[in-house]
Amino acid sequence: MTEGEFLDIPSASSSQGEASGDMTIPRIGLFTMMRLGVFNMGLGIMSVLTLGVLNRVMIDELQVPALVAAGTIAVHQFMAPARVWFGQLSDSKPLFGYHRSGYIWLGIVSMALSAFVAVQVVWRLSNGIAELGWGSHIYPWVALLALVFAIYGLALSATSTPFTALLVDVSDEQSRSRLIGIGWGMLMVGIISGVGITVAVLRSVELNSSIDAIQASINRLFIIAPLIVCGLAIASTFGIEKRYSRLTQRSSLRDREDGLPLGRALRILTASRQTGVFFTFLLVLTLSLFMQDAILEPYGGEVFGMPISQTTQLNAAFGMGTLVGIVLTSFLVVPRLGKKLTVRMGCIWAAFCLIFISLSGMTGVPALLMLAVFAFGIASGVLTTGALLLMLDLTVAETAGTFIGAWGLAQAIARGSATILGGGLLDIGKGLVRALGISGAAEAQYLPAYALVFIIQAVGMVIAVVLLGRVNIQEFQANAKDAIATALANDMDG
Questions:
Q1: CB 294, CB 65: distance < 8 Å
Q2: Nearest to residue 11, comparing CAs of 451, 433, 400?
Q3: Among 8, 109, 311, 356, which has the highest number of CB atoms less than 10 A from its own CB?
Q4: The whole model's pTM is what?
Q5: pLDDT by residue (tens digit) across 62-95?
Q6: pLDDT class for 464, splitting at 50, 70, 90?
């Protein structure tokens, strides 16, 4: 339900070998960390607009096929490989006089503009369906919407990757863990704030409101919220780079890492068997965790009869649960149970919550759905924190950026695929319902289709537990450095 990326974090190796001149640069304090976290708050707000509002409107109110709605929105996730390019670009080519800030500002403004344009394309697509039905005349609008979301994804990469690099530039080993924790917390605050903004703007939109009334309110929302996000991003980062950045004092090791060509990076990533095992685990885990992204709000609308302003509050329930899960896992669960056992328990808890979400549809009680989503949010927080800590154990400092890039790419591929798969499975489920001739109230007709998605997610969580059993941190730590050194030596010999 969020596009906040829990694997896109600062490299653990960035502060190694800093020059002695570092003493002249002040260390960031708690207030500055909170200020930087405001940027993630803005990303949380944007995620509510795309995955919490726009997909619900497309699938439920406008009757766009779920696979088309989810597929076009998911396109932005598949722009993730551009992060590598934007990261290297921000290293070498300053923009507006800054290595990081210029890209951050340009990217966030581009995100805001492309989000508004996407809404206008959705209206055109809807008009085409209403006038002539679904047919070849709709395909150009679908292609245009996918293109706009591709631009949105590039803009997200252009702003989030330099921002992550800025966190590396301004932090050290002592401050980095707190900076990550604050950033994640502010992302959840952003989701909750985005829900508040959405509810305030869409308060007048009822379940059976006219399309014209929905369009006017949604257009207003996609003007007000992105303007707030742009303001937060600029306020969060203005002056930070100039005062706190240690970019010019990075070690030669870090410079070597930034200059790794693609071929050598691929050889490093495949040097250890455990890298592939963990990559596969992350794919399955993320796929199973986010398959409901594009269908949860429509689920609330079609099965529970909730208006848009109410289904958007599902994001707040999920965000609050995730925040609780992160805090509990960081301070209580992992210190007592360890990382692997924590993730295993998180997967099992998530599977039960997904079944709970399915069964809540039999009651039609929105409060019960909210409770189930909150519980699933706790599982998400547990899995987010546990997977993050496992990732750090499966990262070698000498090539940390390469490994973190691979983990981030695994997550982005899986999230994009999860959004498409969720929408596709929903369409298949609805098709089966029609083919079987299931009749009755809309709630009874649609519930089996949505339950199909949630149950397949639960099965994916069980598969993730099996894959986790094959992850061996000790084997990785014992063999990875030697394997990477061999790969680099072979590359030099060649």
A1: no
A2: 400
A3: 311
A4: 0.69
A5: 778 878 888 888 888 788 777 767 776 777 788 8
A6: very high
